[in-house]
Specification:
mainly alpha, about 80 residues
Length: about 80
């Protein structure tokens, strides 16, 4: 799921029973209400994860868009998948 909102990410993480890595949580919290910085940082984190998965030849990705396809489409374009 592309990171576009820290509160939403924390709620989703809690509902799934997963933890947000401390360094990611701390960085996101440091941005406060700066939504553009949160989105850019989130994009870079997910890009790096997807890049690693591509290097391991993972056959595909599944993104939760949460009714907001723009961030996922940007990832797909930057990953050269579309």
């Amino acid at each position: 799921m592309p990171i576009t909102n820290f509160t939403q990410l924390a709620r989703f993480s809690d509902a799934c029973g997963t933890e947000i890595p401390r360094w990611v949580r701390n960085t996101l919290q440091s941005f406060g209400d700066d939504i553009d910085s949160i989105r850019e940082f989130g994009h870079q984190v997910v890009m790096e994860l997807c890049d690693r998965l591509q290097q391991e030849e993972v056959p595909g990705f599944h993104f939760y868009t949460m009714n907001n396809a723009g961030p996922s489409l940007r990832l797909l374009k930057d990953l050269k998948l579309v």
